[in-house]
Amino acid sequence: MSNAVLPVYGPSPVVFERGEGVRMYDRDGKAYLDFIAGIAVNSLGHCHPALVNALTTQANTLWHTSNMFRVPGQERLAQRYVDLTFADYAFFTNSGAESIEGCIKIARRYHWSKGQPERIGILSFEGSFHGRTLGGISAGAQEKYREGFGPRLQGFRSIPFGDHDALKLAIKEPDLAAVLIEPVQGEGGVRAVPDQCLRGLRELCDEHGVLLIYDEIQCGAGRTGKLFHHQWVPGAEPDLLAAAKGIGGGFPMGMILVTEEAASGMAKGVHGTTFGGGPLAMAVGNAVLDVMTGEGFLEQVRRVASFMQQGMESLKGRYPELVLDVTGSGLLRGLRMRDDPLPLRGQLSDRGLLVGTAGNNTMRLAPPLVVTEDDVREALDIIDQQFASMMTAAGS
Ligand SMILES: *Cc1c(COP(=O)(O)O)cnc(C)c1O
Question: Is there a single domain that holds both residue 27 and residue 71?
C-alpha cells in the first residue's frame, strides 16, 4: 500500500477510531486498554469531559492572537505553575523539543549576561533523549539519532549514567553552562535517577556555578505521583525545567519553568514563538491542571502506581526466564525483558493491550493517570496470559 507520509515511522497495522478514558476502539469496534497513552501524553485518558469542554468552549470563542497580545489564559496558567513549583516564570511552547531548545538558550544567555559568554557547554547522560531538533539530538546521548545529520553542535557532551567520577570531572570544565537530565529516563529504558544522585547533582552544580535543567517532558505532569517528579526530592530543585507531553493531555503544548535568577539574561525580543501559549492550548492546559490539582487526584495516582508496581514485581517473580527487572517510577514503568520486546508489543495488542517499548529491551507502561486498579489488574492479566503462552511455546 502506498503511503505519502515521510517513511520515518513504522506504525502498527491497527487503526483507531475513537477513545474514551483508558480505552481506544479500532475500526472494527475492538476495544484496547491503552497503557501507553500516546507515549505519556493522554494523561487524563481519551476525551476527558473537562478537556473536551475547555477545548470546544475556547474553539467557539477565540483561537489565536499571537504573543503580540496578552493571552489571559496564558498569564493564569503561568501563575498557577509558578505557585506550584520552584519557578518564578513560565514560558509556553508547542512541544518537548521546543522546551529543551528554550532551556538551552536561557542557560547560555544566563552566563552571557554574567559576563561569561564562553560558557556554552551542555552536559547530558548516556541513554538520555531530549527531542529531535538539532539541539535536541546534540543534547541527547544516543548516537543513532545523530547519524547522518552532521556533527554534534558545539558545546554538547555526555557521560555514562551513574558514573560519579566522570561527573566530578565534567562539572569542572570551565565552559560548562548547564547539566541536563531526565529525573526518570524515558526512551533510554525507563530508569529513575536515585534521589541522592539528584541532590548530589544539585550540590555539584551550585559549587561550580552550573545551571541544572530537568527534562520532565515524560516524567512530569503527575506521572510519578507528584506534579513533577523532582518534587519527591526536597533540596534538588532545578534552575530550569522542560515540560510537554502530559501537561496538555493530548493537545500539543510544552512549557519551560525557570527561576528569576536563571532567567536573568532574558528580556524583550530575546526569545519567542508564534503558537506557544495560544488560547486553545492554554484553555486545555488550565483544565488539565484543574484536574491534576483536584482533591485526592495525585494520591490516587500513587495508590494505583503502587498496585501496578506490585503486580509487575509479581510477574517478574513468576517469569524469571522472561523478565529481568521492574524499573521506573509511579505510572512510568518498565519491564526489562531478556529479549527484544518489540514482537511482544504486537502480541499484546492482538490481546487488546497497548504498551510501548524503550531502550535496553524494556517494555514501557505509561497508562493515563485516571487508570483504576481494575484496569491495571486487567492489563497485567493480559501480560500474564501472554507470558504463559510464551513459556508453553518455549517448553514444547
Ligand atoms: C518526548 C520527549 C522529548 C521530545 O518531545 P517532543 O514533544 O516529541 O518534541 C524530549 N524529552 C523527553 C524526556 C521526552 O520524553
Answer: no
115 and 233: one domain?
A: yes
pLDDT score at 22: 98
Pocket test for ligand 1, best of 125, 245, 364 (most atoms within 8 A of CB): 245
Can you give the pLDDT at residue 396? 65
63 to each of 95, 235, 283, how far by Cα in Å? Answer: 18, 40, 10
Local confidence band at 1 (pLDDT 50, 70, 90 cut-offs) = low
- Tens-place pLDDT, residues 189-222: 999 999 999 999 999 999 999 999 999 999 999 9
Tell me if 95 CB under 6 Å of ligand 1: yes
For residues 235 and 282, membership in a common domain is answered with yes
Do 257 and 391 sit in the same domain of this protein? no
255-264 per-position pLDDT tens digit: 999 999 999 9
Please give the distance, rounded to the nearest whole angstrom, from the Cα atom of residue 384 to the centre of ligand 1. Answer: 30
Q: Say whether pLDDT at 2 is over 80.
A: no
3-state secondary structure of 212: strand
**Cα distances (Å, whole numbers) of residue 181 to 87, 157, 263, 298, 322:** 17, 12, 19, 24, 30
Distances (CA, A) of 135 to 128, 132, 157, 161, 293: 13, 8, 12, 20, 33
* pLDDT one-digit tens code per residue, 65-91: 999 999 999 999 999 999 999 999 999
Report the interhelical angle of 72-84 vs 279-292 (nearest 10°).
30
| Average pLDDT of the residues in 18-38 | 98
Distance separating alpha carbons of residues 306 and 371, to the nearest angstrom: 12
Region 141-149 average pLDDT: 93
The structural domain count of the chain equals 2
User: Residue 130: CB within 6 Å of ligand 1?
Assistant: yes
Distance CA 349, CA 223 (A): 23
* Cβ-proximal residues to 244 (8 Å cutoff; 6+ apart), any chain: 93, 95, 96, 98, 99, 217, 253, 254, 255
- Note down the domain range covering 191: 50-292
Cα 244 to middle of ligand 1, angstroms: 7
The overall pTM is greater than 0.90: yes
